[in-house]
Glycoside-hydrolase family GH114 (Desulfovibrio gilichinskyi), 276 residues
Amino acid sequence: MALISFSLLSSTFAFGKSKNEVSTWCCYYGQQDKTEDLARFDLAVLDAGGQKPEQLRKRRVKCLVYVSLGEVHTDSPYYAQAAKLGLLVRYNENWDSWVVDIRRPEWKKMLFEQIIPDALKSGYDGLFFDTLDSPIDMQRQDPDTYKGTERSCVELIKDIRNHYPKLFLCQNRGFEIIQRTAPYIDYLLIEGLSSSMDIATGIRSDVSDQDREFLITKAQSAIKKNRNLVVLSLDYALPDDKQEIDKAYKFSRKQGFVPYVSTPELHQVNTYAPAP
């Protein structure tokens, strides 16, 4: 009898590769054409208004497009409509955006009929979901007023999977619901596994051992629900801080994750990566 073995923190089975398997990835929200730099990676997360995916896909780079599920930026083309419908519930001064009431059917209608189709227009392999933490935090702070928000987040991910069965889906954080959403996604992104950086000051700081353990435990719980799940990590450091970048890559790979290190704005492509 042939033995089938796999690691808890690996998405690669002994008998073959999963379709979502990658060994390198990057996140780039800049406007300049960085095709040559981005082509070095297996997976790229891009902004809908920035780098076009066509040439990258021809070079077999999996391209995911950014979609905000839990917030609307004030300069978004969907902001006025969301405000008119009364979907905006809390201002996020850090990003000049508004948290939406994700439970409302009007928001789901906007996502499925406008926001997601518009994001996919240029041709992508999948979707990158951001800002789920924001509505989840609303329920945590005021469980009576925002009861059912977590459940609505899970149902939304499930509905997107059912609507787009062939697309790759990546969830950024949302650890409160990850065990419930893991079966419907291909990638989980962990921000700040090793380091974070203050945007205003440019000062980098280490992530505490306690926070690291929390993140790793959550990733492990997700993989138990989806053995093919690929865990990505994103850390922040100055581009010339090779020592800290090396440490972040080494630690992430040790957990079985796929690392990338950049600056918080994600407006440049960091092609430096230490060899495994």
Notes: The two ends are 33 Å apart (CA to CA). Residues 136 and 150 are 6 Å apart (CA to CA). Residues 209-225 form the longest helix (17 residues). The first strand starts at residue 25 and ends at 28.
